[in-house]
Amino acid sequence: METLAGKFLIASPYLPDPNFLRTVVLMVQHDQEGALGLVLTRPINLTVQEMWKNVSGEQVDATEHVLQGGPVEGPLMAIHQVEELSEIEIIPGVYFAAQRENIEPLIREGERPYRLFLGYSGWAAQQLEDEMEVGGWLTLPATKEPIFESDTDLLWKSVAGEVGSNIMRQSLNLKSMPQDPNMN
Length: 184
What we know:
Blueprint: E1 7-11, E2 24-31, E3 34-39, E4 43-47, H1 48-56, E5 65-68, E6 77-80, E7 88-91, E8 94-97, H2 100-108, E9 115-118, E10 121-124, H3 127-133, E11 137-141, H4 144-147, H5 152-172
Parallel strand pairs: 5-9
Antiparallel strand pairs: 1-2, 1-11, 2-3, 3-10, 4-5, 6-8, 6-9, 7-8
């Protein structure tokens, strides 16, 4: 089994779960026991500043929105670029943290860019593979820039567009295809 950790999952129209309509999920872990990912395209009506004031009583300068990482409840989680505050390296230079002692300095010291998540996307053993087998998900190797894109509509369009271009290149057996078809 090839791991999907470090990849983007893009929900296809064949995925019936409304929790994932027009989503891009960054896969954090994936093995024979199951998978964990975080939805990058679901901001909630709560800023980091508001959330931190509620949790700690402290004021921070952070107007970014907290993201709904998925339908499964869980602890506050973060994706960031500070190796010393990490528990897992997702891709080179991008790290995951769920421990309070790793998340607090990110928020307090403004170690940007980072993304904070409430909830996560989780799959039991073989569940994600079954969803992929019926065409529920498309994949793309994750890259750093889209992970920290603040415009979630732009993020979805760019990642979905790249998947579409890859499918066209493969189906037409092209070595290269311009981003803009008008360039032909």
